[in-house]
Amino acid sequence: MLYRKLGGSGLEVSVIGIGALHFGSLLDERQSIELINRSLERGVNFIDTAPMYGHSLSEEIVGNALAGRRQGYLVGTKVGLVPLINDEGNFGVRPARLIKSEISKSVESSLRRLRTDYIDLLQLHSFDETTEPAETLQALDELVRSGKVRYVGVSNYDYEQLKTMVAANLSGNFPRICAIQSHYNILERRLEDNVLPFCQRHDISIICYRALGRGVFTNKYSKGMPPPPVSRAATSSRVRRHLNDANFGALEVLNAFLTTRSIASVAALSIRWLLSRPSVATMVLGMRDVGQLADNLRALEYPLSEEDLAELDAMLLASGYLADIKLNPETFLEV
């Protein structure tokens, strides 16, 4: 396993983390804990969850899995989105105001479900336009000082939101934002316009999700064919939207690139590509079983050279599946 420092924090995170989004929903507790156990045995030390995942069951499962062995593993959870059941009985979420009372209530509930007395990384799950950033940061500062939270970050913030929060952070004696969790992969590169260079400048690490393009990069879906019955696309319209001509066309380019390389799969290529990007510390992968875990960890065996990266970008550009790519990562620092 490889480990990287998480921004300006004191945390060293495994470059592959456990995404607990589907614990308590697609995976039951037994399956989830089995996956956690096998991951920890292989050196994974970071688990990412949230109150809304599995309608709060995800945090409970993570807490049960780590009971009696909490130290040595890093748990990240979030505040800002609250699980609810609508009038039709369907699960959903609502945004919560990022004020002291709401943050404190959410953290206390998370600590209880996680069966722990501290959270390693607490992320703001959504931006609150109704609350002054300084008020939110003051609440986080009190949690850090109390020992209930070690470090803080944000999730799904765009450039302006991240900039606003960091400016407020720098203007007061508040805990530093050390990480941002964002949608980032070999085809989804909007982060590179401004968020990524901003993160480089302020020592903020990126935690990537959808690293495998909602399963598109696993090669388990085929153009013109129904998704496999056990796949997420079989039951999720949001996933099926990604099974489009553009993504399948890009997948052909990625597979063509692999014909002259020793890399085992597009999934392995996607993971190694992310690890080549500046400021990326880790990625949270929504694995369903130990087979997927083994496949993902195998990606660490396949390094990519600068020549590989340049050729891959050139192929994607020539095929028209990416409109613009900053080929030289050093130019990020100039933004």
Kindly describe this structure.
The chain has eleven helices and twelve strands. By secondary structure, it is of the alpha/beta class. It has a single domain, classed as TIM Barrel. The strands form three sheets. The chain has an eight-stranded parallel barrel with strand order 3-4-5-8-9-10-11-12, surrounded by five helices. Helix 5 links the parallel strand 9 (149-155) and strand 10 (177-183). Helix 1 crosses helix 2 (57-66) and helix 2 (57-66) packs across helix 3 (100-114).
Indicate the topology.
Elements: E1 3-5, E2 12-14, E3 16-19, H1 29-41, E4 46-48, H2 57-66, E5 74-79, E6 81-85, E7 91-95, H3 100-114, E8 119-124, H4 133-146, E9 149-155, H5 159-171, E10 177-183, H6 195-201, E11 205-209, H7 237-240, H8 245-258, H9 266-275, E12 280-285, H10 290-298, H11 306-319
Parallel strand pairs: 3-4, 3-12, 4-5, 5-8, 8-9, 9-10, 10-11, 11-12
Antiparallel strand pairs: 1-2, 6-7
List keywords for this structure.
8-stranded parallel β-barrel; TIM Barrel; two-stranded antiparallel sheet; globular
Largest sheet: 8 strands, parallel, barrel
Q: Number of folding domains?
A: 1
- Unreliable segments of 5+ consecutive residues: 327-335
Question: How are the strands ordered across the major sheet?
Answer: 3-4-5-8-9-10-11-12
Q: Which percent band covers the strand fraction? A: 15-25%
CATH topology term: TIM Barrel
Question: What is the residue-mean pLDDT, rounded to a whole number?
Answer: 87
